[in-house]
Amino acid sequence: LVRLRSRLARSQSTLGKGLLAMLSRDRIDEDTWEEIEDSLLSADVGVGPTQELVERLRTRVRVEGVASPDQAREILRSELLHLVGTDLDRSVHADRTATNPAVVLVVGVNGTGKTTTCGKLARVLVAEDKDVILGAADTFRAAAVAQLATWGERVGVPTVRGPEGGDPASVAFDAVKAGVEQESDVVIVDTAGRLHTKTGLMDELGKVKRVIEKQAPVSEVLLVIDATTGQNGLTQARVFAEVVDVTGIVLTKLDSTAKGGIIIAVQRELGVPVKLVGLGEGADDLAPFAPEEFVDALLA
Ligand code: GDP
């Protein structure tokens, strides 16, 4: 986790350092506020949250003044934390009930890192001593089923799979059935992310969810978003959020972008907390999202 933290800090610190420098200037004028706004926007914080943050910073600077760089840091830290939100439920609900495994459905556009996230999440849960089953319901992307099975082997958990091109709902059904029969703790179901049409997607994910719920309630629907795709990724994510009740966001590839502001933008846009962040392609590169750590990394 320490390693991950320093990696997040490295990729994100330009934004924080820049903001800190601007806010520590002897004279903060309109040009300065514009610069602050620009750097937030170019870090993908999004228009609404940027305006809100700048308004709040303006008020605090006016009322409190900025007497030292330390004070600038304190103001910035508390306002960024306010924006990111410190009181959201960011835990991944993956505890079995007396009768059922927890079911975690992983959704999102192809290429965002869904399959990888399923593998990494399985690893995290196995480390918590949980019995995990993977369900390879992304039957449309040619390599997805084999890729998930490879993750399963690596992490040491079984993968339930069907034929390539088969019915995703039937694989999801089989995976959860196995989880119920084997009294597993968690079933993680990878899904297809074809953004063909909204109704197509709705039908597909709706069916997957319905067949699962014949056996066990879905405890968590994680929407995977690629942080490097910025506002475009956000637009696609919105479609998913409209067709299925998303309970948490996984923001992947944060190691490959300095635009960590997207964390703030997605939460605001979708009204769902970021629960996990992907910081690399390896098995250990998935971390719980912790607002304090994130903001401290920004300002490191
Ligand atoms: P899917 O189509 O949504 O299932 O996406 P995949 O899981 O196949 O991931 C697509 C690519 O992104 C793969 O090459 C992954 O190794 C890579 N990837 C996934 N998560 C991360 C991450 O957090 N950081 C980096 N750098 N790459 C990632």
Automatic annotation (TrEMBL):
Native source organism of the sequence: Actinopolymorpha rutila
Predominant place of localization: membrane
Membrane topology: Peripheral membrane protein
Assigned EC number: 3.6.5.4
Subcellular location as annotated: Cell membrane; Cytoplasm
Catalytic reactions of this protein: GTP + H2O = GDP + phosphate + H(+)
Record keywords, A-Z: Cell membrane, Cytoplasm, GTP-binding, Hydrolase, Membrane, Nucleotide-binding, Receptor, Transmembrane, Transmembrane helix
Function field: Involved in targeting and insertion of nascent membrane proteins into the cytoplasmic membrane. Acts as a receptor for the complex formed by the signal recognition particle (SRP) and the ribosome-nascent chain (RNC).
Cellular component, GO annotation: cytoplasm; plasma membrane
Residues of the full protein shown: 95 to 394 of 395
Protein name: Signal recognition particle receptor FtsY
GO BP: SRP-dependent cotranslational protein targeting to membrane
Family: Belongs to the GTP-binding SRP family. FtsY subfamily.
Subunit structure: Part of the signal recognition particle protein translocation system, which is composed of SRP and FtsY.
Gene Ontology molecular function, alphabetical: GTP binding; GTPase activity; signal recognition particle binding
Domain SRP54-type proteins GTP-binding: 273-286
Domain of life the protein comes from: Bacteria
Residue sites binding GTP per the record: 108-115, 190-194, 252-255
